[in-house]
Amino acid sequence: DTRTLVVFTAPWCPHCKTVLPIVIGAETDSLPDTKVVIVETASSPGDEIYTHADLASWGQLGPIYIDTDAGDGSPGDAATAYGVTGFPYFVLVHTDGTVLRRTQGEMDDQALIAFVNG
Q1: pLDDT one-digit tens code per residue, 83-97
Q2: What are the C-alpha distances in Å from 91 to residues 46, 59, 95, 97?
Q3: Looking at the whole model, is its pTM more than 0.85?
């Protein structure tokens, strides 16, 4: 019975690397009734998902789902289905599966909490 925040990120996106620690911290501290799902998409040849140093510095991180994409930097199947237009892209999904709201771009912890709590 929790909402789900789906966060679409791209490995080449510096804004994604900035916002992921904020998302992880907010999930732990400020959004206890919200499950966070991170989806990696829009890969290009030679991209790493995230480095071990990134992951270690961000704290407790759940699984990162890999979206099926063409490998040319364009959004993959899941990202396209959710209407991703830029990165990072956030989709808040109700417990019944309906999309409550979506937005894109870098945000701080207060903006993220306001987005989720509406």
Answers
A1: 999 999 999 999 999
A2: 27, 22, 13, 11
A3: yes
